[in-house]
Amino acid sequence: MHDLFVSAIGTDSGKTLVSSILLTAFEGEYWKPIQAGKPTDTDSVRNLVGEEKHVFHPERYVLQKPASPHDAAAEEGIEIRLEDFSLPAHTRPLIVEGAGGLMVPINESQVILDLIHHLGLPVVLVANLYLGSINHTLLSADALKRKGVPVKGIIFNGEPNEASQRFIQNYTQWPVLLHVRREESVTADSINKYAHQFLKTYHEYYP
Q1: Given 3-state DSSP classes, what are the helix, strand and coil percentages for the chain, each rounded to the nearest 5?
Q2: Can you say which residues are annotated as belonging to the binding site for Mg(2+)?
Q3: Which parts are annotated binding residues for ATP?
Q4: Dist CA 145 CA 75 (whole Å)
């Protein structure tokens, strides 16, 4: 199945929106392993795509403080461990959304990238475009390559920057699966539009 882990080059890069698009594209199932702060991303995705065609799995950890998972967990006297996580049973493509970027700590010695490796899922990396995003994207790419995590492709988010996008694609040699433009408001129609675009490109690379 097309199980995917949605990560990003940083916090607020657009993981939840992209997860909603992929969930719609595959009519799949959604899981957010670690949630820090409210409202939850599970609720946000549910509100964007509806519940009729999808399955939403409960988070392994729901932490109150909107902070990095290791900080939010410590506030509640919790230590997050990799062995606490296993993929939920699922029958359709599973879209897993990370917390923050790849190097966000989940405890005192491990980061989201370690969780991705532990779960054994390929990554779709979300890169929003801003001054400095080339550096952040290439550092993320190198971290994924060093860890040996397979990457299905990259999704750009924001106003186009052809020079940045071209350099990132040439450096990483990853497929560009989608470009999400800045929208006045996110609606079911816009989610469906991007889901259709994503699926068409995705199946060109992964029939």
Answers
A1: 40, 20, 40
A2: 16, 41, 97
A3: 12-17, 41, 97-100
A4: 33
**DSSP alpha helix (H) spans, the chain:** 15-26, 41-49, 69-75, 112-119, 133-147, 162-172, 188-205
Domains of the chain, CATH where assigned = 9-92+100-118+128-205 (3.40.50.300)
Is 32 considered catalytic here?
Answer: yes
Cα torsion for 41, 44, 50, 52, to the nearest 10°? Answer: 20
Closest CA to 36 of 63, 10, 70: 63
Per DSSP, what are the bridge partners of residue 7?
125
pTM of model > 0.70: yes
Out of 32, 65, 152, 200, pick the active-site residue.
Answer: 32
pLDDT tens string for the chain (207 positions)? Answer: 699 999 999 998 999 999 999 999 999 999 999 999 999 999 999 999 998 889 999 999 999 999 999 999 999 999 999 999 999 999 999 999 999 999 999 999 999 999 999 999 999 999 999 999 999 999 999 999 999 999 999 999 999 999 999 999 999 999 999 999 987 788 989 999 999 999 999 999 999
